[in-house]
Amino acid sequence: MFKAYVFDAYGTLFDVHSAVSRHFDKVGENPARVSEIWRNKQLEYTWVRTTMNRYKDFWQLTAEALDFALAATPGSNPDCKQVLLDAYMTLDCYSEVPSTLRQLRGKGIKTAILSNGSPQMLSSAVQHAGLAELLDDQFSIDDIGIFKADPATYKMVTDKYEIKPGAVAFQSSNRWDIAGATAFGFQCHWINRNNQPDEYMDLAPKCVLSDLRGLLD
To answer: 206 pLDDT exceeds 90?
Structure first.
């Protein structure tokens, strides 16, 4: 049915909280809160900078978001910054990711990442997780200097593959990303790993899955 299965990276293939979870004992009194603020600010910075037309690459914003998270969380340890950034370059992938990609590839389907992540970040995470041979492409918005959910980011895929948006199955754990991709014309699967309530009701996904295994049903 689809000519390509395209995946968001952070939160969809890779666990964004695994960097902090590896180093709970070094982060301070409330590591879970640090991780939550870190992720929220990381995304906020992408949206704000896109609206201002003041681009910085995702790695810079990730570091700046961590600075804020550590400063905003009482009892946190500022000396853990570098170890957390190092860990972010090698985030854990979710357990079902390799087998799902392998089975899709076995059907002759193109598989790719479309991410806000910088090329270096994506390459490092993909290599660490052993996914390099399971992906045809890694699309980074760094090539155009605009973050998702700008339509130009999704157009990178259709331009490269010379296909219509409806021929792309797009998977993301981020509901705002699903909304943007749906508006562009992708057929979207929302990977709702944490059972979040729905939003963007006028831009509904094709279906909602708890993890990527549902793509194979």
So the answer is: yes
C-beta separation of 119 from 140 below 8 A? yes
Give every strand in the sheet of 137-140, ordered side by side.
Answer: 137-140, 110-115, 4-7, 168-172, 187-191, 207-209
Catalytic residue chosen out of the listed positions 8, 15, 142, 177 = 8
Give the total number of structural domains in the chain.
2
Instruction: Residue 191: give its domain's CATH number.
Output: 3.40.50.1000
Write down the pTM of the prediction. 0.94
Please tell me the distance from the alpha carbon of residue 139 to that of residue 162, in angstroms, as a whole number.
15
Same domain for 97 and 84, yes or no, is no
Which residues span the domain enclosing 122? 4-15+91-216
Q: Cα(3)–Cα(24) distance, rounded to whole angstroms?
A: 42
The 10s digit of each residue's pLDDT in 2-17 is 999 999 999 999 999 9
Q: How far apart are CA 187 and CA 2, in angstroms?
A: 9
Amino acid at residue number 199: E
User: Which residue, 63, 88, 113, sits at the end of a domain?
Assistant: 88
Structure token pair of residue 183: 């508006």
d(CA 131, CA 105): 12
CA distance 13 to 9: 5
Question: Catalytic: 8?
Answer: yes
pLDDT digits (tens, 9 = 90+) for 54-86: 999 999 999 999 999 999 999 999 999 999 999
Q: What is the DSSP letter of 164?
A: -
